[in-house]
Amino acid sequence: MSDKPRLLVIEDGHEYAEFARLFLGDAYEISAAHSAEGALALLEAHGADVLLVDLRFDRAAPEGLVGDLDETARRLFGGDRARALRHLQDQQGALVLGVLRSKGHTQRAVFVHDFPPRRLENLRKLYGDVDAVASFDAAAIRAALSRAPTTGAKR
What we know:
This protein has seven helices and five strands. It is α/β, with parallel strands linked by helices and 155 residues long. Among the domains are: 56-90, no CATH class; 106-136 and 146-155, no CATH class. Helix 3 (69-77) packs across helix 4. It starts with 5 loop residues before the first strand and ends in a 9-residue tail after the last helix.
């Protein structure tokens, strides 16, 4: 068993986990999940100190996505299922984080995405300790993962 903090990477591919192992592996014990269900299973079995979350899940199978496709199509897109699916894929990381928060997992979550300030603040209001880094900059991600909770964070 390692004394390193645990980092759970949540993504639809493998790029984030590969990046984390290469550039953050000296500081974190890294595991990866590819769905909300997988993330919950890993959190329940092993826990995590911090989360690195991919926002877009465009390679995930539609049936594995969080969110009701038909309801999203009806409510947001006038019944257009293709647009609703794209929306669920584009926002999947935030939706997965919502599921994790609803189950009591309040770890810091860091997205690699250039969110507008207002969107990031809204994510913090909804999901507590959330941060974002605009690009795959190892030093910036490491700093975001380890810094004190953000303003408005719920611990």
